[in-house]
Each structure stands twice: as structure tokens, then as C-alpha cells.
Amino acid sequence: MSTTQRQIVWSVGFAFLIALIVGAVFIVVFPLHDWAELWNRDFMDIPIVIFVPACSIAIGILLGGTSGFFWRKQFLSIEHSLHQLEEGRQLDVKGKPTVTEMQSIAERIDKIGKQMSEQAKLSQRLATEKVEDQEARIQEIIEQERNRLARELHDSVSQQLFAASMMMSAINETKGQSENEREAKQLKLVEEMIHQSQLEMRALLLHLRPVALKNKTLHEGIEELLIELSLKVSMDINWKVESFQLDKGVEDHLFRILQESVSNTLRHSKASKLDVLLVKRDDLVILRIVDDGIGFEVTEMKAGSYGMQNMHERAVEVGGTLKVVSVKNKGTRLEVKVPVMINGDGGND
Length: 349
Known about the structure:
Layout: H1 3-29, H2 37-40, E1 42-43, E2 46-47, H3 48-87, H4 100-135, H5 138-174, H6 180-205, H7 218-232, E3 236-241, H8 248-269, E4 273-281, E5 284-291, H9 298-304, H10 306-317, E6 321-327, E7 331-339
Parallel strand pairs: 3-4
Antiparallel strand pairs: 1-2, 4-5, 5-7, 6-7
């Protein structure tokens, strides 16, 4: 039951109760000689016994509706503030509550919003400092990434290529006695395995890229990555990337999230189309990656996927949020929202 409905019910009940009490007192003070007078005496051509309850109900509905509308407006104001707080936006209080208790709640929400804003600024500043420290050790990090990638290539792609080779050997051995249809199926299977191996290789090669953007902006880094990728894979890749200034730490984290997401798409999604969006709207930076792949169970991936956990942690480190929506055989949509802070590192973001 909504606030307005609840107020109407209470007001109608209260008004009807008051009418009964007043009527009872009136009858006690001025006793009736004949109860039929309640039906015989009219007011505005309506018997008193009907007019009084009806009038009470009408007044109750009017007062309840007015009261319910008033309280609904107060609650919506608080809900609006909480929604802004949840989205990581700066609180924009259009109309402050007029009730003292509601004003107290609104003030506390405003204090919490300011504290969260300060924490987000601090997180972005720390992320920037962390990236600056990492640049001094970038050569060492690249070497470690190459060693890790070599191990992964051996454990995944090499095994798939070996299986393809074994399959080709089997085809050659049975070529004389097999039918064309059977041979065509085997060749098709080999082709799919090799294709998947190539996608696996390219996905793993994304990790060879430096963890930082160096002297490039986020806009330049994303465009270079997607252009190079579109030349190497048959996937339809589209992007809309706006150019705007961000803290270096925020740019680095968003770029790493994009790398991880694209890598997952190439390795697991079996998608034919990939869309990337990077825009700045009001006080939010939005990074959205959408594919039309096979999808997955989001709850299961959150529990056991290092990549998903890593992306989520990177979003949180810069005061943002990460949301993943995936539908089986429909595709996956990953969206990161990061609030833009003024003077996050002493400058304008």
C-alpha cells in the first residue's frame, strides 16, 4: 500500500470515528423521541443518517489525499537523494524537505555524499600516484607479462594446435576409405579448432601491451587498440570514443578494464560483433562494451573468475561501479561508470 493510500484509509477511518463520537454525544445531550427522525430529517435533500457518514468519508478522503501527497513528496525527495548517492553523483537537492525529521535525514545524506565524494577523490589521487610509480618499473612488468604469456600459450594454444595436427593425421590415414561427407566434417572441425586457436592467441597477446598508456590519452589508446584488433580478427568491431581529460590513474584503470573485457570476448564469447562506447555525460564517465556472443551466468563468473574480480576492483579503486548483464545466446553488456571529480589530483578532471 502506498503512502497516499495509507493516509486516505487512516483519515477516512478517523473522520468516520469522530462523526460517530460527535453523533453519540449529540444524541445523549439531545435525546431523540423517535429514531425515525434520523431518516425523516434531511440536509440538502439527504437524510441525516446518510449525510453525516458520507460527509465524514468525503472529508477523510480529501484530508488523506492531501496528507498522502505531502508525505509522498517528502519521501520522493529523500529517495532522489539516495539514488544520486548510489550512482556516485554529486547531490543535487532541488527541494529540501519541510518536515524537521526529514530535514535531519536529508542533512545526514548530504554529509554521507560529501564523505563519499572525498573518498572517491582520494582513491583517484592514489590511483594516479600508483600509475606514476608503475611507470618506473614498466620494463620489468613487461618482461613478467611476456613470461606469463609464454606459459599460457604453451598450455592452451599449443595444445589446440597439437590436437588439430593429430586430427589432420587421422584424416590422411583414413582418406582412402572414408566418404567425402565424413572427410568434410573432419576438415570443418579442424578449421574451427584452428580459428579458435587464433582467437585465443590474439586475446593472450593483448596482455603483452604495457599496463600504462605512457604518453597517450585514453582516447588514443582505445582507438589504436581497436583499429589494430579489427585488422586481425573477422569480428565486426565498432566504437564511439569521445576525447576528454581525466586523471592519469582513471585512464589507466579504464584502459585495463577494456583490455580484460575484450580479451574475455575473444576467448570465450564466440561473438561476431563488438561495440565499445566511451562518453562523458554530466559528471560521469561511461565505458560500455557490448558483444553478441553466447553469454554466461553472471553470478557464477563473479564467484570464480579472476578477470571479473580484477575489473570490479579496478572500477572500485577509482570510485566507480561496474555492472555486467549477460543473457545466454544473446550476448554480454559490461558498463563502467566513474564519477568525474574536480581537483582529483590538484587539477580539473
